Amino acid sequence: MNDTRHNRGVVLLMVVFIVALVSAIVIGMLQLNTEDIQIMRNHIHAAEVLAIAEAGLEDALSHLRSDADWNAGFADKPFAGGTYSVTVEPSSVTSVGISPAGFVARVQADVTIGTDGPPHEVAIDRIRVNP
């Protein structure tokens, strides 16, 4: 009779240990999934803000095609829920996009503007993302 009571206690301890072990495994897997979801969200936001910055660059290049001397740029122009700001220098155009979630991306292009036109030929000699 003494052995039966002793075995019941051992079984109870084993069950508690197994439940704790399974709980730890489940919590660890949930943590990994949460991190993966956050990484995916960051990737989506980064792609979104890069598209906004590229839209600003394309908008500026469009203005340069019609007027080679245009250098006004843009400040906080709305696009796709975010905004972009563009600065134009003699040989480069820089666009900074801000997403609705507050992410920021910068695209800078070194350009050569043709003298014939309008429309003027605008060649991108070099492009840098987040310089």
Description:
- This protein has one helix and five strands; from the N terminus they run αβββββ.
- It has a five-stranded antiparallel beta sheet, covered by helices on one side.
- The chain has one domain.
- With 131 residues, it is α+β, with helices and mostly antiparallel strands.
- The relative contact order is 0.13.
Q: What radius of gyration results from the CA coordinates?
A: 29 Å
Query: Would you list the SSEs in sequence order as H and E?
Result: HEEEEE
For the record, the count of structural domains works out to: 1
> Structural class of the secondary structure composition?
alpha+beta
Strand order of the largest sheet: 1-2-3-4-5
Mean pLDDT: 92
How many DSSP E strands? 5
What oligomeric state is this? single chain
Strand content: 25-35%
**Cα separation of the termini:** 78 Å
Primary descriptors:
1 helix; rod-shaped; alpha+beta; 131 residues; 5 strands; five-stranded antiparallel beta sheet; 30% strand
Question: What would you say about this model in short?
Answer:
The protein is of the alpha+beta class and 131 residues long.
